[in-house]
Specification:
Layout lengths: L5 H13 L19 H15 L5 H6 L3 H7 L9
InterPro entries: ACP-like_sf, PP-bd_ACP
Protein name: Acyl carrier protein
Pfam families: PP-binding
């Protein structure tokens, strides 16, 4: 079975846990404006790290202020899917 792309995995998390539609989020929206507190962001990071075997430096994660910055750290485009 093929691996679920990180983007789809994050989109599903945001839909089910945060009631957010990935493609409707403005890239430059702040995480706070989206209602994503530090615990939610940490949950996303930990889930992605475990599922995909990647490790993100805590400092970089802590510095992400916008949705685009967070997605860039995860190697995902914040642009809506075409």
């Amino acid at each position: 079975m093929p691996e679920v792309p990180i983007r789809d995995y994050i989109a599903e998390f945001l839909r089910t846990h945060c009631d957010l539609q990935f493609d409707a989020i403005a890239a430059q929206a702040t995480l706070a404006d989206l209602g994503l507190d530090s615990l939610t962001v940490l949950s996303i990071i930990v889930l992605v790290e475990k599922k995909y075997g990647v490790e993100l430096p805590d400092r970089q994660v802590a510095s992400a202020r916008t949705f685009a910055e967070l997605m860039e750290l995860l190697g995902v485009s914040a642009a809506p899917a075409s």
